[in-house]
Amino acid sequence: MSLTDTFIRNVKPASSPRKYFDGEGLFLYVPPNGSKLWRMSYRFDGKTKLLSFGKYPTVGLRDARARKEEAKVMLDKGIDPSEQKKKKQEEREARWAELDKRDADKAAAKEAKRLEKERKRKRKALEDAARQAEKDAAALEKFRLKYEKKKAKEDAKAARKAERQASRQQK
Questions:
Q1: Bridge-partner residues for 21, per DSSP?
Q2: Whole-angstrom distance, CA of residue 9 vs CA of residue 16
Q3: Closest to 4 measured CA to CA, from 64, 72, 67, 68
Q4: Is the peptide bond before 57 cis (omega within 30 degrees of 0)?
Q5: Using CA atoms, how far apart are residues 70 and 72, in angstroms rounded to an integer?
Q6: How far, in Å, CA of 155 to CA of 91, rounded?
Q7: pLDDT tens digit string along 5-58?
Q8: Which of 2, 68, 160, 165 falls between 20 and 30 A from 11, CA-CA?
Q9: 3 state SS for the chain
Q10: Residues 65/22, Cβ–Cβ less than 8 Å
């Protein structure tokens, strides 16, 4: 008897795992936790093997049957569907690893660029501060010279005044 979508939706878990067969090795495996998993039993090189197609309702009855047919075509060509699935998974993981590596390389390049900008910004800030310090030192020196000149004039004026007073007192 072939499975129907209505029957699958209404299947309830039992205290022990159950298998509901659709035909040609395809079956719905229902463990006590209630999940409904598509599996296919087949023989390859004299060994019984099991292939998983996914969880119902993510993988519907039609999709499970289509995947079973794809697996049968591979078996007819002498290809083990489990090994083919593993190979595809490894290729997918390698592509993801390559993408992760590229992303990591991009992130590292971006971080290096950010750090370089930060270094340039700090270097410019230090150079600006040094220039400002030089300007301030020059202005301070100019002020000091002006002050000393003014002080010298005042001292000379005070000396002349004292000299005048001293010469007035002598007279």
A1: 27
A2: 19
A3: 64
A4: yes
A5: 5
A6: 93
A7: 999 999 999 999 999 999 899 999 999 999 999 999 999 998 999 999 999 989
A8: 68
A9: CCCCHHHHHHCCCCCCCEEEEEECCEEEEECCCCCEEEEEEEEECCEEEEEEEEEECCCCHHHHHHHHHHHHHHHHCCCCHHHHHHHHHHHHHHHHHHHHHHHHHHHHHHHHHHHHHHHHHHHHHHHHHHHHHHHHHHHHHHHHHHHHHHHHHHHHHHHHHHHHHHHHHHC
A10: yes
Q: Work out the end-to-end distance of the chain between its first and last CA atoms, rounded to an integer number of angstroms.
A: 147
Check: CB of residue 17 under 8 Å from CB of residue 29. yes
Q: Supply 35's token pair.
A: 């999940």
Contacting residues for 122 by C-beta, under 8 A, at least 6 apart: none
The Cα 30–Cα 38 span in angstroms is 9
> Is 56:8 a contact under the CB 8 Å cutoff?
yes
Token output for 60:
């519907």
pLDDT tens-digit map of 82-134: 999 899 889 888 888 888 888 888 888 888 898 899 899 989 988 998 899 99
Place of tokens 């939706």: 9
